[in-house]
Automatic annotation (TrEMBL), chain A:
Organism, as annotated: Candidatus Accumulibacter meliphilus
Any single GO CC term annotated in Swiss-Prot or TrEMBL for this entry: plasma membrane
Single GO MF descriptor: 4 iron, 4 sulfur cluster binding
Protein's recorded name: NapH/MauN family ferredoxin-type protein
PROSITE patterns linked to this entry: 4FE4S_FER_1, 4FE4S_FER_2
UniProtKB/TrEMBL annotation, chain B:
Key words, A-Z: 4Fe-4S, Iron, Iron-sulfur, Membrane, Metal-binding, Transmembrane, Transmembrane helix
GO molecular function: 4 iron, 4 sulfur cluster binding; metal ion binding
Protein name: 4Fe-4S dicluster domain-containing protein
Species the sequence originates in: Candidatus Accumulibacter meliphilus
Residue intervals passing through the bilayer: 44-65
Keyword Acetylation set for record: no
Classification lineage: Bacteria, Pseudomonadati, Pseudomonadota, Betaproteobacteria, Candidatus Accumulibacter
Length: 320, 302
């Protein structure tokens, strides 16, 4: 998938089969077809020697919890390292401002003071370097809660107690545009009112609020009706960071030669459309960087029994 | 993936029982297309309802904003309410820097005002213990500001005639607060319950033994506000609102002689009142204070 195509998919388009496939990739595709028995045998071998690991998940949870507690303790213990909430804060005095909150405020208020600009620019550079939507999986407290409730949802689905309902992924783009327009036209930061990220972050720092009821409602909806609905189909924060991530060097890379096309990665993924490339015959090249909608959560890296998905920093791996 | 399953299941249900060897294939390929279309249509309708639902719930946040008759008392330097709500990024940095913890954040029952800071003056007023108006310094978006951007309007009666002099730093080279506009104005709302009006004195803890509010007493410690309950008063005529006011020349006690020759007293709010709410907090009349701050009220000389 070209980068342009990957961005189109992030905005809601369905992934397409590649039109141009490199000769090398074509050969691998055909080899996998031709030697079916052998292919099955190596696949089984890989399965048998698979290391069940939660390395990246554990690292990510640790970072997420640490970052959010740093906010909390900066206030509670008055250690003043990370003051504020996720929407806007100061890290040892340096302004950090969440990109989507900044966008909402800029559109609603139509006046940008220096601190707002500095904080927004700093965070833009930070997440452009660190992978864009890695904000979602490595920092956002709602992501972690939703991940735990997703486990419950999948349990209920497997027991046929609830059924899964998908929405069109383009809804998130629609929400992004509507919330931007609403802010600009009404002059209120409408999205911030219902943002579970902001609500949870503030609750963790300033104490529980009635607003947590809304967050709970969202989680219940995700458990009984639609898997990870907020992150997948609604949250404009994810799209904002996704756009930033389009230029990021940090991403997950797919390696065709190591893949057995079993699809475990797509089952654990929050955004399985970015893993369309792992479907047999879809890869256009030997290695493919996963698209900007990927949250760099590493669940696929952990789950792949044959190491076909790995974290990669563009340019760095060549350098080393 | 789920859609495919749904489609396949529906196709099985609607497909006719196979009659010959070749026919089922034909029937299946014919039946599949409309069913997939139907599933897509359902997904589209579901998505449309979801968009409507989420937006509807988000817009409900306008109701509390529209129906709020008395706006909240906002921290010093706050822009006009509409501008304040649009510019506040709801991070609570103002809450974190306030030395007397006067600033709280609103909850979702305030709609668009969720996470926006306010001051409940009766519980804990802003007494400018920080000297520099720390909340203004902390605000990353200019919701709280010393100087308003030129494009924003300034209502008549909101600017202070002179820079407010802070009693606590009256002897400093720069005794003023860098505040241009008031956040409200105090008013003797219940003169009948005012102790001074009744000619009464006051002795004891101003707000009782359980009151948690703090106030800076320069005579005790200029930099460390202390709990009000630890600072009992002894006054022959209650004048706490006048003596505890942190701003110079913002309130005074008026003495007059009645027809029967007896002396009458009454606290009078002056134009330098910034609306901080210390008088409302310290007023010992319970439960409702005799003097209160009207948030966002302009000064009117009447």
């Amino acid at each position: 998938m070209s980068q342009f195509e990957q961005i189109r998919v992030m905005f809601g388009a369905a992934p397409q089969k590649p039109t141009v496939v490199t000769a090398e990739a074509k050969q691998v595709h055909s080899l996998k077809r031709m030697t079916k028995a052998d292919f099955e045998a190596i696949k089984q071998h890989a399965r048998d020697h698979e290391l069940v690991t939660h390395k990246w998940r554990n690292r990510r949870w640790a970072v997420l919890i640490f970052a959010n507690l740093l906010f909390t303790f900066s206030f509670w213990l008055d250690i003043q390292i990370l003051e504020g909430a996720l929407t806007a804060s100061r890290f040892v005095g340096f302004h950090l401002i969440d990109l989507n909150s900044a966008l909402q405020v800029m559109l609603a208020h139509k006046h940008i003071i220096v601190n707002l600009f500095i904080g927004t620019a700093t965070v833009f550079v930070l997440w452009a370097l660190l992978g864009g939507r890695s904000f979602c999986s490595w920092i956002c407290p709602y992501h972690l809660l939703a991940e735990w409730f997703e486990w419950l949802h999948l349990k209920l689905v497997s027991r046929k107690l609830v059924s899964e309902h998908e929405f069109h992924r383009g809804t998130r783009t629609v929400f992004w545009v509507i919330f931007a327009l609403l802010a600009a036209v009404s002059g209120y930061t409408v999205f911030e009112t219902i943002s579970p990220t902001g609500i949870l972050s503030r609750a963790l720092i300033y104490g529980p609020s009635l607003a947590l009821g809304w967050v709970l409602l969202l989680l219940v909806f995700e458990v009984v009706y639609s898997r990870r609905a907020w992150c997948r189909y609604v949250c404009p924060i994810g799209l904002t960071y996704g756009i930033v991530g389009a230029i990021s060097p940090v991403r997950v890379e797919y390696r065709l030669d190591k893949c057995f096309h079993e699809g475990d990665c797509r089952k654990v993924c929050l955004v399985p459309h970015v893993l369309d490339v792992v479907i047999k015959g879809r890869a256009a090249d030997m290695t493919t960087p996963i698209g900007p909608d990927c949250t760099r959560c590493g669940l696929c890296v952990d789950v792949c029994p044959s190491g076909a998905l790995v974290f990669d920093v563009k340019g760095l791996s060549k350098l080393l | 993936m789920n859609d495919k399953k749904e489609t396949a299941a529906a196709a099985d249900g609607t497909a006719l029982p196979p009659l010959g060897e070749a026919k089922p294939v034909v029937i299946n390929t014919r039946a599949k297309a409309p069913v997939r279309k139907q599933a897509n249509r359902r997904k589209f309708i579901r998505s449309t309802f979801m968009i409507g639902g989420v937006l509807g719930l988000a817009m409900l946040g306008y109701l509390p904003v529209a129906s709020a008759r008395n706006s909240r008392l906002r921290p010093p330097g706050a822009l006009e309410e509409k501008d304040f709500l649009s510019s506040c990024i709801k991070c609570g940095q103002c809450v974190q820097v306030c030395p007397v913890a006067a600033i709280k954040l609103d909850d979702i029952d305030h709609g668009f005002g969720v996470g926006v800071p306010y001051i409940d003056a009766r519980d804990q007023a802003c007494d400018f213990s920080c000297d520099a108006v720390q909340c203004i310094l902390a605000c990353p978006t200019g919701s709280l500001t010393y100087i308003k951007p030129a494009a924003l309007n300034i209502r008549a009666g909101m600017p202070l005639a002179q820079p407010p002099v802070l009693k606590a730093k009256e002897d400093d080279p720069e005794p003023t607060l860098n505040l241009r506009e008031r956040i409200g104005v105090a008013r003797l709302a219940r003169p009948e319950s005012c102790l001074a009006v009744q000619g009464k004195g006051f002795s004891g803890q101003a707000r009782g033994a359980d009151f948690r509010g703090h106030l800076r007493y320069v005579s005790i410690d200029r930099w460390q506000p202390v709990p009000v309950r630890e600072h009992p008063y002894e006054r022959e005529l209650c004048d706490l609102c006048v003596t505890e006011c942190p701003i110079k020349d913002a309130i005074q006690m008026i003495e007059s002689v009645a027809a029967d020759g007896s002396k009458q007293y009454r606290p009078e709010v002056l134009e330098q009142c910034v609306g901080c709410g210390v008088c409302e907090m310290i007023c010992p009349v319970e439960p409702a204070a005799a003097i209160i701050v009207d948030p966002r009220q302009p000064w009117s000389a009447s």
